[in-house]
Amino acid sequence: MKILLLSDIPPCENLTAGLVLSALVRFVPKGSICFYIVLNPIIDIKLNPEFANIPMRLETKPNENWNFLPQRRGLNKLSRLITFAGEKVNEQFIVSKRIKDAIEFGKSQNVDRVWAVLQGQTTIRMAEAVAKGLEVPLHTHVWDPFSWWADAHALDRVTKNRVQKQFNKAIKASQFVATASKPMAELYHSEFGVNSVPVIASHPIELAKSPVTELTNDEGILIGMAGQFYASKEWECLIKMLECSNWRLNNKKVKLIVLGPQKPPGEYLDTNVKYLGWKDQKDAAYILSLCDILYCPYPFDKKLKEVSTFSFPSKFVLYLAAGRPIVFHGPDYASPTKYIADKQCGVVVGSLLPTTLYNTLENLINDRTLYSNCAKKAQTAFINDFTLNSLRECFARFIGCDELVGDLENNQHYLSSEDNKFKEIEHRISNRKYSSFSYVAHGKLILAKRNIVKTREWLRKKVVSRIPPFKRFYLEIDYYNREVKRLNKIIMFQNGKVVDKPELLIITQSKLWIDGLGDEFDRAKYIIILSESNSIECLIRKFLLIDYDISIVYFDSNISIDIEILKSEFKKIGKKIGIIFDSNNNLESFMKKEAHEDIEYLVKK
């Protein structure tokens, strides 16, 4: 067996699709796979040494995203014409060249099957042609329906229809199809008569956290969310609901914990929505397990009905592994809705009304039996459906091979990051954007749009607004804009009472330590948390529930938890730690015994 993987993203650790491909490629025996990757020059790829010893060809794919062109009425016809012409040029000159190149590469590697990821115009156009040129079976892999991709990338109607036909043709010509969900597999089997199997992002069984069957008994509620914000209206509904309830549920304050590649949209206080950035799967599962409820929004928009029906969010699998109740906020026809109804691993909110969302959350919090059952069944669903054993079985059916490697045989494709070959590949990936005409042209157009916006703003402020007929009109607009901002600020900052950010956050296990601070200690400048628990999870929750965003957490030197463990665990949420000593003598004594890097030290006065 020798597989040619044709994809727009290689196995990597900083993109969702790359993570799924990484898990699948680990199953393939050494010497049984090669890559032909057409990379988007704009996307940053972090090459994993684990797969760097696989033969690969890296090429730049032509521009597929046309939403940088003006889409408003009056100019959209011109934009569609440019899009149509650009796609024609791409198909006739660039994609045809990539097809020939991929066929030559596949022949040199003696491949006997093509595994093509149908994501974007380029790989869709290439898939069937490459398999025919190599005279080998085609196995296609689908993340999402093409209609969603076409709309998100502003394709013109003619191009969208043509590429959709090529997509359907590639599916029909496939020996086997890997799909994003069970409903999608059933659709392709009934519509095209092809063998299909859902191949959904899965994780090692060790990632599963013990289900927490009771709401944490402290002063707040943490709602966790991971992933991208393609369901923006649903997210806005959550924010609006929390604002209307003064960020409280069941008489407890609420904090949103967000993990992902982009900061959440909308207006809110950073103290209420705590964005922790991108985390690897292990750390993400750990942080989500500290939350009380996991929120999964999915689009109600009728334009995205096909996506909601046939796709399956990868974050949902991670939520199941975290062992906490899931609140799915999406339509009744969505694939996760059907999965939850079958497995009873969460609750569904099928409305965009904030009151409906609020009532569902309140009911989940107050109904102990429901909360406990959702947590238990979430972990059961993960173990039964989304471990690597399940993934390997599905992938073996899809790729047509029973000789896949087991969990213990990792790193068979490894190449040291110090190796010259690895450095050469890494250099090609990092420098591909600067040699790409589409990347340079795209950058110039974006810059031109920004300059046009700045010029228009300057003309409005300096020229048009000073002309008598328009002067009063623009003065009123500016006044109302300022008033709206002022009123929003008053609402967000609780009637304008803005509390200064404290200088330090201190966590101690001893009330005596607090009592010993003395009267000269200005407690208004500090937050002091008393926690008698030795649980790291308890300490991190207490930190996440505070009303401030503080970068360093200080502990008193008498804390019984190992310093290195504290540093490691708080690093997962992007925070440093520090130690406060009673005296310089205590500090010197501590430093003689053990010195720690990246830890701040302070002495009480």
Describe it.
Strands 3-2-1-4-5-6-7 form a seven-stranded parallel beta sheet, sandwiched between helices. The chain is globular and about 80 Å long. It has 21 helices and 19 strands. It has 605 residues and is of the alpha/beta class. The chain folds into four domains: 3-202 and 387-436, Glycogen Phosphorylase B (Rossmann fold, 3-Layer(aba) Sandwich); 205-384, Glycogen Phosphorylase B (Rossmann fold, 3-Layer(aba) Sandwich), CATH 3.40.50; 441-492; 504-603, Rossmann fold. α3 (121-134) packs parallel to α5 and α7 packs across α12. It has helices at residues 16-25, 76-108, 121-134, 146-152, 157-172, 182-192, 232-244, 281-289, 305-310, 314-322, 335-343, 354-366, 368-385, 388-399, 420-431, 437-462, 468-492, 511-515, 536-544, 563-571, 584-593; strands at residues 3-7, 33-39, 56-60, 113-117, 138-141, 176-179, 196-198, 220-226, 248-249, 252-259, 273-277, 293-297, 326-329, 346-349, 504-508, 526-530, 552-556, 576-581, 599-603. It starts with a strand and ends with a strand.
Distance between the termini: 71 Å
CATH topology of the largest domain, by name, is Rossmann fold
Strand content: 15-25%
Nearest-integer average pLDDT? 86
CATH top level label of the largest domain: Alpha Beta
Structurally, how many domains make up the residues?
4
Structural class: alpha/beta
| Secondary structure: number of strands | 19
Instruction: Characterize the biggest β-sheet.
Output: 7 strands, parallel
Radius of gyration, Cα only, in angstroms? Answer: 27 Å
Q: Which residues sit in consecutive blocks of at least 5 with pLDDT less than 50?
A: none
CATH architecture of the largest domain: 3-Layer(aba) Sandwich
CATH superfamily of the largest domain: Glycogen Phosphorylase B
User: What's the tally of helices?
Assistant: 21
Helix percent band: 40-55%
Shape: globular
